[in-house]
Design goal:
It is built from six helices and twelve strands. It is of the alpha+beta class. The protein has two domains: 154 residues, Protein Transport Mog1p, Chain A (3-Layer(aba) Sandwich); 68 residues, no CATH class. Strands 3, 4, 5, 6, 7, 8, 9 and 10 form an eight-stranded antiparallel sheet that branches. Strands 1-12 form a two-stranded antiparallel sheet. The chain has a two-stranded antiparallel ribbon with strand order 2-11. Strand 7 and strand 8 form a beta hairpin. The radius of gyration is 43 Å and the shape is elongated. The model has no long low-confidence stretch (mean pLDDT 81).
Length: 255
């Protein structure tokens, strides 16, 4: 089948359809799709206080980085049920109460789009006793149909602390991480595929028609070598004559 127009068109179009018609995530499953450099997966790591500390955990994962003594962690916890903005507001209020007596600043709950869904989160800044910035945090909750993922990103890295908006951007890269197909691109690829099949079949039909109409020319054989043929006939005649003479002589010998 590899030589047919259909097979050739398939070999040409299917790789292009696979590349252009689907979107493959960086990481499969519920995961941060664009973690910072040097962060590594470590599911055995947990934070001291989660965004929803009283809710059951049905999924957990974590990214950590601790170079130069500055710890950073991104924690992903899945909780049953589709939580709401009111749940996030309540979680922020509980976090503020838990931080009483410590130098911490809490931002307001804000809307954020994560994995194409409406999510909510807030930022935090924690300071040392001398007033210096100790670490910053961004927390967000992403509700799905039957599950809500809470993402807590805290860092003491100086490069990230001075750019707290970068935490929000990294958290917003979270996605369930499934391979998706673009139906418009697949339809376009199918149209190109059918067009290629039609063109290749037309060319194959034209080649067959041209071959059928070809005029065959009979090539004459090379004339025989007359001299060689004559010598060959003389040699055979001489052998026959010698055989007859030999038989005649044998019959004339006295018994």
């Amino acid at each position: 089948m590899s030589g047919t127009p259909f097979a050739r068109a398939t070999l040409l179009v299917l790789p292009l359809m696979g590349v252009g018609g689907c979107r493959v995530p960086e990481f499969q499953g519920p995961q941060i799709q664009r973690p910072p450099p040097a962060f590594t997966l470590n599911s055995a790591t947990y934070q001291d206080r989660r965004m929803f500390p009283d809710r059951e955990i049905v999924h957990h994962d974590a990214w950590v980085e601790a170079s130069w003594g500055n710890f950073s962690g991104i924690y992903i916890n899945g909780h049953p049920g589709a939580l709401t903005r009111e749940d996030v507001e309540a979680a922020r209020s509980e976090s503020i109460r838990a931080a009483v007596g410590r130098a911490a600043e809490f931002g307001e709950v804000e809307g954020i789009t994560i994995d194409g869904r409406e999510a909510w989160g807030w930022g935090e800044s924690w300071r040392r006793d001398d007033g210096g910035l100790d670490f910053v945090v961004f927390r967000a909750a992403v509700p799905y149909d039957t599950l809500t993922y809470a993402i807590d990103f805290l860092t003491g890295d100086p490069g990230l602390k001075i750019r707290p908006d970068s935490l929000r951007t990294i958290v917003a890269s979270f996605a369930v991480g499934r391979t998706t197909w673009s139906l418009p691109l697949l339809a376009l690829g199918a149209g190109v595929f059918l067009l290629l099949v039609r063109v290749m079949r037309g060319r194959a039909r034209a080649r067959r028609e041209a071959t059928r109409r070809m005029t065959l020319i009979r090539v004459p054989k090379k004339p025989p070598d007359t001299l060689a043929e004559g010598l060959s006939e003389q040699t055979v005649a001489g052998q026959i004559a010698r055989q007859l003479d030999s038989r005649k002589a044998s019959s004339q010998k006295p018994g």
